[in-house]
Design a protein that fits this description.
Blueprint: H1 2-26, H2 36-47, H3 51-67, H4 72-92, H5 98-114, H6 116-123
Helix pairs in contact: 1-3, 1-5, 3-4, 4-5
Length: about 120
């Protein structure tokens, strides 16, 4: 039962990441209202031309991989830096949106812990 729940959550998580990645390229979802601080942060990201395409590609690839049960361990590791970035961003700049960030981080950590045996050769335990 736990495995089925994790599979459904990882598929939904993967679809969210894929959607977010494609939105960075095609801009089909409206941006929420941003504070002055957020406008400055986004302006800084916009001056670094390659950062959003890189994040979008990682979100798409990681989302696809985490949705496929046999590739879930790789997908969870690929998408982990993006999810940590989302969590830290909401923790520091937008505490009102921290709920979804905590859920995404929890799903990602659950996917990693459920596949821990695949990481044992890497971490040496």
């Amino acid at each position: 039962m736990k495995n089925k729940v994790l599979t459904v959550l990882c598929i939904l998580f993967g679809l969210m990441m894929i959607n977010s990645g494609f939105n960075k390229f095609f801009h089909y979802m409206p941006m929420p209202e941003m504070s002055e601080d957020m406008m400055q942060i986004m302006g800084g990201f916009m001056t670094i031309k390659w950062i959003f395409p890189l994040v979008a590609i990682v979100e798409i690839i990681g989302g696809i991989l985490i949705a496929i049960p046999k590739k879930r361990a790789l997908g969870a590791i690929v998408i982990l830096p993006v999810v940590i970035g989302i969590f830290v961003h909401h923790l520091v700049h937008d505490v009102a949106g921290i709920g979804i960030a905590i859920i995404l981080l929890a799903i990602n950590i659950w996917a990693i812990s459920a596949n821990w045996d695949k990481f044992k050769p890497i971490v040496g335990s």
